[in-house]
């Protein structure tokens, strides 16, 4: 995700924090200062916020590691001011597996809250909950309360939060995934309106959450509609068959001319008719900046590329293409490149199909 800084990897999953997260920390620090006017209590409040986002990270790892058990990979986990996002390669096709992946996140927060409750009882620090706030009360009890609050809020049936995803998974056991997603998305957008009204009257931060819920629900509905439209269609029907190839020994100036005077941005690189790699637009620009136009294509191309078979189903191939964060995949048959699968070609196919659907019979 843009404007994100990578913190590291956990179980092979990249973990990043978005730049706007620092704005949230600063906003909380200023808000605490005006409320309590004490450096020590401001530091305690910021520490609580940071630990809360540590719990959010564990929450997202619950989703990601459960998905791994079902053979699914997670592209990355990103911490945002409104929480965290685990970007799975795709959701499980089995609704019950999807339900387990969804519930794994809140289960982590419940486990954390239970552990904190035991620690508070053992150390005799427990206080009545009516005495607890974000700035007052035992630190561990405040952390326990925010974990429980996170569970309650996150399980509201407002798609794309966990409650909405769980609702979709349950609905998908009784109807097709497309209809289940639409119902969950509409309910989520309805709750977004409620969040926005409450935010306007009481807490402006809820307006940001409302925007996230509304756009997330709409985006998820579009993705499911696209998957349904692409289901059962082979890559061969959509792939680009008129394309230019390069050789590893070609200069980058050749690719530069092709990009400037044509519509192709990514080029299969072949040697004796066999695929050797792909020169992407990003690789071309990097190579030009670092080595100049006379440097070889072999020095700028990607060698580890995702290859598609013309008989692969388009929805699965496109999902794997996005998982690799690439916009182009060579279509290879009997060792030779016969086409290119691109995100633009898929978008054009969907536009044409939509036009045909509205054409008079």
Tags for this model:
single chain; 361 residues; alpha+beta; CBS-domain; 3 domains; two-stranded antiparallel ribbon; 11 helices; 55% helix; globular
Please describe the topology of this protein.
Layout: E1 4-10, E2 13-18, H1 20-36, H2 39-69, E3 74-80, E4 83-88, H3 95-122, H4 139-154, H5 162-172, H6 177-201, H7 205-230, H8 252-261, E5 267-271, E6 274-279, H9 281-291, H10 314-323, E7 328-333, E8 336-342, H11 343-357
Helix pairs in contact: 1-2, 2-3, 2-4, 3-4, 3-5, 5-6, 6-7, 8-9
3D architecture notes:
With 361 residues, the protein is an alpha+beta fold. The chain has helices at residues 20-36, 39-69, 95-122, 139-154, 162-172, 177-201, 205-230, 252-261, 281-291, 314-323, 343-357; strands at residues 4-10, 13-18, 74-80, 83-88, 267-271, 274-279, 328-333, 336-342. A hairpin with a 2-residue loop joins strand 3 and strand 4 (83-88). 55% of the residues lie in helices and 14% in strands. The chain has three domains: 1-155, no CATH class; 158-230, no CATH class; 235-357, CBS-domain. The radius of gyration is 25 Å and the shape is globular. The two termini are 44 Å apart. The strands form three sheets. The protein has a four-stranded mixed β-sheet with strand order 1-2-3-4. Strands 5-6 form a two-stranded antiparallel sheet. The chain has a two-stranded antiparallel sheet with strand order 7-8. The model has no long low-confidence stretch (mean pLDDT 82). The longest helix has 31 residues, at 39-69.
């Amino acid at each position: 995700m843009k404007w994100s800084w990578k913190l590291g990897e956990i179980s092979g999953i990249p973990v990043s924090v978005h730049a706007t997260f620092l704005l949230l920390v600063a906003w909380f620090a200023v808000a605490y200062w005006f409320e309590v006017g004490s450096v020590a209590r401001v530091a305690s409040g910021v520490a609580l916020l940071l630990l809360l986002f540590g719990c959010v990270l564990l929450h997202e790892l619950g989703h990601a590691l459960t998905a791994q058990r079902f053979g699914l990979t997670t592209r990355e986990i990103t911490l945002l001011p409104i929480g965290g996002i685990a970007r799975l390669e795709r959701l499980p096709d089995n609704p019950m597996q999807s339900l387990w992946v969804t519930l794994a996140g809140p289960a982590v927060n419940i486990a954390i809250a239970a552990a904190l409750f035991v620690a508070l009882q053992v150390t005799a620090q427990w206080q009545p909950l009516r005495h607890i706030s974000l700035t007052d009360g035992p630190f561990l009890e405040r952390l326990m309360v925010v974990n429980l609050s996170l569970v309650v809020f996150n399980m509201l049936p407002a798609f794309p939060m966990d409650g909405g995803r769980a609702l979709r998974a349950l609905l998908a056991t009784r109807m097709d995934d497309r209809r289940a997603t639409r119902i969950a998305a509409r309910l989520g957008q309805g709750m977004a309106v409620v969040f926005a009204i409450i935010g306007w009257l009481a807490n402006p931060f809820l307006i940001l959450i409302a925007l996230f819920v509304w756009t997330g629900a709409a985006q998820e509905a579009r993705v499911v509609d696209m998957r349904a439209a692409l289901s059962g269609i082979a890559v061969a029907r959509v792939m680009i068959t008129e394309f230019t190839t390069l050789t590893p020994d070609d200069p980058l100036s050749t690719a530069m001319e092709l990009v400037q005077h044509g519509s192709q941005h990514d080029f299969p690189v072949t040697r004796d008719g066999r695929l050797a790699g792909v020169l992407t637009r990003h690789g071309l620009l990097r190579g030009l900046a670092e080595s100049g136009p006379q440097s070889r294509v072999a020095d700028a191309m990607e060698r580890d590329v995702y290859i598609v078979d013309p008989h692969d189903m388009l929805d699965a191939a496109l999902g794997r293409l996005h998982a690799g964060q690439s916009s182009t995949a060579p279509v290879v048959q009997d060792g030779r490149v016969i086409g290119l699968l691109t995100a633009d070609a898929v978008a054009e196919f969907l536009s044409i199909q939509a036009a045909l659907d509205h054409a008079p019979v």
